[in-house]
Amino acid sequence: MTVRCDRTPAWQALQQHADKVGRGFDLRQAFAADAGRFASFSQEAPHVFADLSKNLIDQRTQELLLDLAQQCGLQARRDAMFAGEHINSTEDRAVMHTLLRAQGAVPPGSRSGVAGELAKVHETLDAMLEYAETIRADHTITDVVNIGIGGSDLGPQMVVLALAEFVAPGKRFHFVSNVDGHELAGVLKGLAPEHTLFLVASKTFTTAETMANARSARRWFEQSGGKDVARHFAALTTNVAAAREFGIETTFGFWDWVGGRYSLWSAIGLPIALAIGSDGFRKLLAGAHAMDEHFRTAPLAKNLPVRLGLLDVWYRNFLGFTSRCIAPYHSALRRLPAYLQQLEMESNGKRVDLQGAALPFGTSPVLWGEPGTNGQHAYFQMLHQGTDVVPLEFLAVRDADHDLSGHHPALLANALAQAQALMQGRADAGGHRDFPGNRPSTFFVLERLTPESLGAFIAMYEHRVFTSGALWGLNSFDQWGVELGKVLAKDLEPRLSSGDVTGLDASTAGLLARLKQG
Ligand SMILES: O=P(O)(O)OC[C@H]1O[C@](O)(CO)[C@@H](O)[C@@H]1O
């Protein structure tokens, strides 16, 4: 049983600590006073190194945050997740995406039944990877179109882009998510049905956008002379019956205990397996599993996802920061911010606790960002000199996968320089040219961007979001907030042609009249 963070003695102690030192904390003085600050505030985890030393925390902050984690029962909730308890209480489901990357045995203390689930995981994984290898060897298939949205799009898309270096030539990958027909039409324009494989990816197989795109893709396939729907369409879903009813015979399943935003490790990862091969996909899983084991077993004080989640609570609830910026210094990670937005904001963008009581404190920050160095020439101005403090996260990769001379040192120097500038500031230039400094950042280092390191980094983020969500007393695994808009859109769609505005508010009615279809 977890205790909500604001009902613990540590919460009160952190409030006093924030009043006393938190808001007056100065990073420059902290480094001057403690030669060991980098070592004591950095952390090695599988495939990921993190420097937390440029954050507005001291040893006491860390101790109090760890007390908070203990008093909230973070370990018990973590163990309940790994054991397969139904911690997604509003949907009465287990949360076992970690089982998708379990390498053999189930975690100790697992509920009965989990071993059986793991056997199903491996059976499906083997079948999916065998299929992936067959398609990889089939040179008549030159284009793979993934049709899915949210977790059925962002994860596979982000990973396929990120691991471009590992993608065998000969196949192009396309991702269609939006119900906006411009997207699908643009992709279809360059395709031939006999050379195309469509993957319809949807956990529920009911999502309106995905179903509309899948129907249009099949119509296009048939109208352009495509033969053999069975060979050219596959479905990735927990709702195999609905996929069959749609007319798709090749299906790869997964289970209700995999949340959409945690599903790239399941059959939803088929585009990744097609792109980087079965070995590559297994390495991605292995990297994530290594981070799972770190999260599950490392003491809280040396547990990277825990330290990050606690830092998020400190910034959000005690220093009042409402957003966090992520800057991956690697152009292949350009979809990482969008992916992390869903992971964090759909998980922790909640205003009631597990019992449904309104929370008296803030939860998910706004997460945003762009790859560096591009962001530097756009919004970094605000990060350096704006009135709001926005903690920034740098992700740098030591080794490049190209041999263009000079580029990589320039890229890395920029990442280092920005973190340095944010912290140091500048007080000698006068007026508009001065920088306040003391702006916090976290700096992640991967040795190389590989399936293993990317898998570990994503898993680290999943567990960090788990940590802050657990402390806030949230159910991080439902998403009721997406439902109302879906219902209203269903009501409005026919009105766009009928023009019926009965019962609508004046603004919606006025806009509908402007958008009415001729
Ligand atoms: O995979 P599905 O069921 O099509 O859902 C897609 C996405 O839609 C959501 O349910 C939100 O509407 C996400 O949580 C999910 O990732």
TrEMBL record:
Its EC number is 5.3.1.9. Pathway: Carbohydrate biosynthesis; gluconeogenesis; Carbohydrate degradation; glycolysis; D-glyceraldehyde 3-phosphate and glycerone phosphate from D-glucose: step 2/4. This is Glucose-6-phosphate isomerase. SUPFAM superfamilies: SIS domain (SSF53697). Gene3D superfamilies: 1.10.1390.10, Glucose-6-phosphate isomerase like protein, domain 1. It catalyses: alpha-D-glucose 6-phosphate = beta-D-fructose 6-phosphate. Belongs to the GPI family. Its main location: cytoplasm. The active site is at E346, H377, K486. It is an enzyme of class 5 (isomerase). Pfam families: PGI (PF00342). It is found in: Cytoplasm. HAMAP family: G6P_isomerase (MF_00473). It comes from Variovorax dokdonensis. CDD domains: SIS_PGI_1 (cd05015), SIS_PGI_2 (cd05016). InterPro entries: G6P_Isomerase, G6P_Isomerase_C, Phosphoglucose_isomerase_CS, SIS_dom_sf, SIS_PGI_1, SIS_PGI_2.
